[in-house]
Structures
1.
Amino acid sequence: MKKSCGKKYGFLTAVILAALGSTGCTGGSREAVQTEAENENIVIGFSEVGAESDWRVANTESMRNTFTEEKGYELMFNDAKQKQENQISAIRNYILQAVDYIVFAPAVEEGWDEVLQEAKDAGIPVIIMDRMINTEDESLFTAWEGSDFYAEGVTAMEWLEEYLEEQGRADEEISILHVKGTVGATSQIGRTEGLENGVAAHENWEIAACLEGEYTQAKTYEVVAEYLETDTDIDVIYCENDNSAFGAIQALEEAGISYGVDGDVIIISFDATEAGLTACMNGQINLDVECNPLNGPRVEMIIQQLENGETPEKYSYVDETYFVPEDLTEDLIASREY
Ligand code: GYE
């Protein structure tokens, strides 16, 4: 694998100095401890958002399966437990260790300029995946790849319009309970905007309430169960991911409210993970909009382009589709990678 000597040297120096520090031996000069040993691997420091959802777990697996030692990579992994501050310190750590590339899925959009400036000053390319950052200085990252979350939201709204029409409900008052994902994350912002524009375009649709489900089943269950104590007159629950849909379903079951294809409440979800699609096939979820978590190979393509001295696209979006129960079979679900 191609790699600049300067960087390799930096990585080794950092490792050796760290080792010396930990044994209390700090007197030797840098020159004295540098060896000719070389790390031939491409070293990638990866900061993952957390393990909040099935989607996220599939995303982490995709990274681990892609960046293997057999293929000449060393993947350093950090689980930020959904906290931006953990990601910032992981990135600082990767800078100190002079990794070859920093890859991260930003928990939220705001607040990255300072640490990314540090990476830039250290000459380490930064690749952002999944969610985006909000910055005025696009030179702070080399490339981004992920999904068009706004388009996903628009797809959901177009489907809902058509579905209600088919059901002869086009003119009915439609009350939508909105369960947001992690507030401030690009996926939340895009899917929310899709919903809000869809509602604004229909006089008879309204958002009954907006809850924060944090992309987890537990949190969504908690907030939806609480909501249902005071209002059960809802037509749609717009859940911003599959795990959130499971939490909403759990709360509806407990409240004795029917849902899904044969029920009173329409469930809209995002991700189309194996568990989500199974619930959709069984009629519990009416619509599951796909969000592809297999970012590993796409990040690898960017890294390989950089290794070859090419300039990758600054932004690359992955194509996605959506699923309704009629589309799904066990075989189809089993044939998918997540
Ligand atoms: O939809 C959700 C996850 O940012 C696309 O984060 C990602 C979202 C995904 O936790 O399940």
Note: The first strand starts at residue 42 and ends at 48.
2.
Amino acid sequence: MKNTMQAAVVEQFGKPLVIKEIPLPSPGPGQILVKTEACGVCHTDLHAARGDWPVKPALPFVPGHEGIGVVVGIGAGVTEVNMGDRVGVPWLYSACGHCEHCLAAWETVCAEAEFGGYTKNGGFAEYILADPRYVAHIPAGLSATSAAPIICAGVTSYKGIKECKAQPGEWLAVSGIGGLGHLAVQYGKAMGLRVCAIDIDDDKLEHARLLGAEAVINARVGDPVARLREITGGGAHGVLITAPSLEAFHQGVAMTRKRGTCVLVGLPPGEFPTPLFDVVANCITIRGSFVGTRKDMAEALAFAAAGKVKADIELQPLASINHVFERLEHGDVPSRVVLTFV
Ligand code: NAD
Ligand code: ZN
Ligand code: ZN
């Protein structure tokens, strides 16, 4: 094996990634080395590379948290995976395993959690160092490229829908039909919900219809809140906001039915005003949701392995990453770009 690998590196926030050879890591005790086959490009990678959020990654770093590959190296003491296993290296890279949140199976909010492609180097590279206790186990029959979007966009959508507590037959509004949203429409449908898709791009809405959305709304046309309330007879029981736009958050709360839940998963920097009287008087729940636990991950992958959910992917080489970021920023990626490695 050579001792360097190609990677796309963020050297400065807001600047193009630099494609270069960096040292090939070797797995220490309790670590594994994964040879990357595919890695999805999430809007979070763009936030990371721009330094959008209050807690910034240390520079330089390699983004990417939808990396799928094969285990090619195992450090001392590893028992959870075997050489040759196909695994995914997700956003939740590792957690402490013993704090109050980890003990409650809420490892996603562990204060000692590390994040793939953020606090640890991620999948925009030929190899990824991973913690075998937290990797996703890719079911047989699911290709690396199809699995990639599931390990962030898929699990985040799936968990967010569970958190909105809507029951079969009830309405789910999904705001933002990109990487996360096009999977949320499919998960919602597979979970027995009636889905209304909301975006600002008619092509994305058309796509949502093909994926099973019963109604679609362009958020930039007319009064989208009134329209949704009319379609659903008083608001959606569950609302999932994936759009990286503060305007969508404001609208999403107003689209929530009395006693319904509005789940926030999109992460544009900033804040949005909350209409207190409406939220209080209508007993609305507003809650955040952050990726998913290892159990959520296994469930989200099982939907994909059973063919109930399928990511729409566009394959690109690692070298195209800066162009892909530009397109993502302008809403020009139809669903999900997946980088492939030979
Ligand atoms: P994406 O760029 O693929 O999709 C975003 C979609 O939102 C696009 O279709 C765009 O047209 C649409 N949109 C933009 N403005 C809108 C508006 N005002 N109303 C309705 N739709 C609008 O992005 P993605 O990869 O799906 O990620 C979406 C967001 O979710 C990002 O902010 C990302 O960081 C965040 N995210 C959060 C988690 C989590 O755990 N909470 C996990 C993954 C991603
Ligand atoms: Zn992501
Ligand atoms: Zn913990």
Note: The first strand starts at residue 4 and ends at 9.
